[in-house]
Amino acid sequence: VQLQASGGGLVQAGGSLRLSCAASGINFRINTGGWYRQAPENERELVAQILRNGTRSYTDSVKGRFTISRDIAKNTVYLQMDNLKPEDTAIYYCNSRGNWPKPHNLWGQGTQVTVSS
Hints:
By secondary structure, this protein is mostly beta strands. Helix content is 0%, strand content 55%.
């Protein structure tokens, strides 16, 4: 059971990146998939999540710029990040929480996103 995150990198302000989180051993169709981020000296914060029924939510600072989605066939959750700002610089972590196949709150490894001004 694991989550494999990818897609981070260095981009200029105004640019775009897409993060991917591929799951094995769990299913994003019936668990909640989320993206969190942690900047230096800050606490980890929830950026976006998609519930099992497809409902999506975002933290205010990324609304209108980030889009979370999932590909059930690939069991992957994505985070499309557009119009990136320097304050989006952080390590991004994907997460799965739910009850199948057993209760869990699972984290992937972080992927660094750096936005230069």
